Structures are given as C-alpha cells and as structure tokens.
Amino acid sequence: MMTRTKNSEPVTDVDVASGRSGGGTVARSLAQRFSIVIALVVVVAVFGSLRPDTFLTTSTLQGILGSQAVLVVLTCALLIPLTAGDYDLSVAGVLMTSQMLVGVLNAQHGMNIWLVIVLCLLAGVVIGLLNGGFVLLFGVDPFIVTLGTGTILSGAVLWLGDSTTISGISTGLTDWVIVNRFLGVPLAFWYGLLITAGLWYFLEYTAAGRRLLFVGRGRAVSRLSGLRVTRIRWAALVASATLASLAGILYAGTTGAADPVSGEAFLLPTFAAAFLGSTAILPGKFNSWGSFIAVYFLVAGTTGLTMLGAQSYVSDLFYGGALVVAVCASRYSRRKEVRESGSL
Fold this sequence. Notes:
The protein is mostly helical. The strands form 3 sheets. It has a two-stranded antiparallel ribbon. It has a domain at 62-263: ABC transporter involved in vitamin B12 uptake, BtuC, CATH 1.10.3470. It starts with a strand and ends with a helix. The chain is built from 15 helices and 6 strands. α4 runs antiparallel to α12 (229-255) and α6 runs antiparallel to α7 (142-160). The chain has helices spanning 13-33, 35-50, 58-67, 69-83, 91-108, 113-136, 142-160, 171-179, 187-205, 207-217, 219-224, 229-255, 267-277, 288-307, 313-342, and strands at 2-4, 10-12, 166-167, 181-182, 185-186, 257-258. Helix content is 74%, strand content 4%.
C-alpha cells in the first residue's frame, strides 16, 4: 500500500514499519544507557517505602554520599588499567598502605599532614612503577602480579601498624574530608565527583585517553598504528596506584584512623562497581559516570537490606552477585557493540 502527502514523496508501509523499528531501537538504546539510573531509582523507591523513617532521611543521604567517596575514587583508579585491558588487583592493598602511612607518619610521629599526603602519593607512584615493571618487562600476567602485590601490601600494613588500629589522625585532614561540608554534603563527595568528571573528560576528550582505549581494544593493532603500547599500559598502572593511594588518604580522613584490615573489603565492591558501570551510560565500555552511579546503586541496596534487618554477610552476597551479573552483562554489551559495528 502506498499513500502520498502534499508536496512529499510516496510513503509506503515499509517506510512506516522502518520508522517504528527505528523508534523502538532508540528507546531500547536509551533504556540500556540509563538502566543503572533506573535501577537506582527503583531501589530507593522500594526501600524508601519499606523504611521511610530511616532510609529516606537527610542524615542517611548525607552519610551515604560522604562515606562512599572512597569507593568512588578507588573505582576510578581501577577503571584506568581496565580501559587498557589490564586488571589491577592491588588497588585495595595500595589503599590500605596509604591509609596506614597516614596513621604512622602523622598520628604516631607527628609529621605534617600535607607532607604525609605527598609521601603517600609518591608511594603510590612507586608501587605502580613496580607493577608495570613486572608486567611489561618480565611479561608476567597483570592479574598475577597485582594479586601478589596486593597480598604483599596487606602483610606490610599489618607490620607497619603492629596489627592495631591507629587513631588520632590530624584534624587538618578529617576537617577537609568529612567534617566540612558544601551544600550540606561532606567535601569527600565533591572530591569523588570531581575525580569522576575529570576521568570522564580524560577518557572521552583527550588524545591520551583515546590512545588508552585503543590499546584496550586491540594491542596488536595499536602497535601497528605506531602507539607505544608498553608505555601506555605502564602509565595506566602507575595512575591506578596513585589514585588508589589518594583513596587511602580519603579513607584515613573519613574514619580518622588507620585500620590494617578494613581496606580489604573494598576490592569486591570496586570491581562490582566498575563492571556494573560498564553496562550503562556507555554500554560495553568502562566509564566513570556509569561506575559512579553503580557505586551508589550498590550502597543503596546494601544499606536498605541492613535497615531491613539483614545480616552483615548479605553485603558480600549482594556485591558478589552484582559482580557476576555485571560481568555477564558487560560481555554481552561488548559483543553487541562489535556486531553492530560490523554490520555498518
């Protein structure tokens, strides 16, 4: 069947069907891109209706936003090597090392907090250089190297802190992390937001970020294109460790103490947020905004379950389940993206 409109070309049933199909494709694409946002809204609505007196309160919101800045920054640290196609399992160990250095140098030995911060960041650079050296000079799998590094750092932290929690960290740090607020929200949240935005800009709008992504998509092709793949991967591991060290500084400022074991609990949520975030905003691609939203989706879920009386182990079940689902969804998104690119 064919119809004709005034001053227009004939319109067929095929054209109409094609338009409907195109509209459906756009709707599905938008739903996938903002799936994690929709999921966050649903989780907040469900737990808010079940526990309105505790879940939907200003204090709960402020607590969640401020306390999760550490996880946001640590996830950003992990995203950098993941974008280059490498795993960094040492990020939690670097966080613990940085936090313990703050405790030992500042609280125990009275060193100026700003000098301590510089030393912690330098320690992160050194750890990243060592990780990159073992991976790229000796050809060892980054999964193995960073797993070993993280384990070594966990032991070193116990030794540094004598297996005890160190309190009394300078208020010069705690004030500028969790005590002082902007728009009623701890400054830690805004630091995490700025780092997320900065990483987004770097990966999406700079030549270095595009090279990093290109290396992650195909190292052989990248070498043929003239990219210095070894240098780029090494820089990614250094940046990851440095940013993880910053997360450790924020953690020390958030808690006001250095705990030699609590940092280990960050590893699973960090990977869960990174992979879950890659299923949204830019599906099939590791991206900071997707991970940022994923962090708060995960913490909203665990906080809501805790308020409903769930046991503490439920958090591990929730994060573990989210990681498995996120990895499967991420792989599906990447395969779909490859198929669509190949069909163009």
